[in-house]
Amino acid sequence: MARTLSLADIFQLGYYWECKVLLTAVKLDVFGALAGGAHTAADVSRRLQTDRQATNILLNALVSIGLLRKSGEQFLNSPETEAYLVKGSPQYAGHVLLLQEAEWDNWGRLESVVRTGRSPVKGHMFQTDPQLAENVLIVLHRVALQHAATLAKQIGLSRAQTLLDLGGGAGTYAMAFCRAYPALMVTVFDLRETLRTTERFIKEAGLEGRIRLLPGDFNRDDLGGPYDAVLMSDILHYQDPEANAALVRKAHRALAPSGRLVIKDRFLDDGRTTPAWTAVFAVHILVNTEKGRCYTMAEAVQWLKEAGFTSVDELERATLVQGIK
Ligand SMILES: C[S@@+](CC[C@H](N)C(=O)[O-])C[C@H]1O[C@@H](n2cnc3c(N)ncnc32)[C@H](O)[C@@H]1O
Q1: C-alpha torsion 8→14→15→19, nearest 10
Q2: Is the CB of 135 under 6 A from ligand 1?
């Protein structure tokens, strides 16, 4: 159903001051500087090596927003910022905000992208910015943990012996599939830089013996195989349609007879305005990748059919599609 917006809602949508105050505080690590105690603006600016007056203004704004408390001239974290925004806290959740902050400048170029159709970036962050990419992988890992086990059961790989997780990122799905299917061996194929993070996560989970890491560029390098199943989760929206069609054909070649390719992505419905989150995510992809786009499920179905998959099924609206070889 279409969302209805009052004038107040429209103004609220256009208001970003508090947003930028928060993101800047996270970037500067204001919450870390206040970890465990109360400090004056002068203390904080000394720790952060920032301007004292400007820091004072920022801290006061953070108090007014509810992110800090103030007692006399002393500032301190709220219980929430102490728990979630102090690096090193077991509940630290600043990665996603650091990511928003890092992408701020690209979003600032949206007008020019819309006018010219030209992206402000080269490639995408996994190719160009390993440090930022690691942040994204951590965020994606946390998100994927909420549904990876369910996905593994839903796909039903009890007869499969091998799975290739293409662009497997932190290895969240690879680990979930290993846990769901004790006989399954998984290969995570990803860029060499990304696999450093994958390796860490897999070691922490004690699954090194079940998961092989294969470094490479999936558009250029051999994928190995044959595999009983291939998973592509959230990789197609970083590429143009031609690269995706070619990658789906390549996955088809890497599969054993009767093997299956499962594609999980943020697909748009045919009208391209729903799901609502994805229609806006499409703008995020527009400004933050050189060639990426959000695709419709129908486009993915077409790549699968053209690659030669005989049976193609949508397993879940706007999210999951499977082709059987
Ligand atoms: C958005 S992440 C998805 C990670 C994981 N599949 C998930 O769903 O959580 C995209 C992944 O694709 C990998 N990737 C992007 N381009 C690649 C390429 N050309 N070759 C291999 N991996 C690539 C990135 O390194 C990253 O791990």
Answers
A1: 130
A2: no
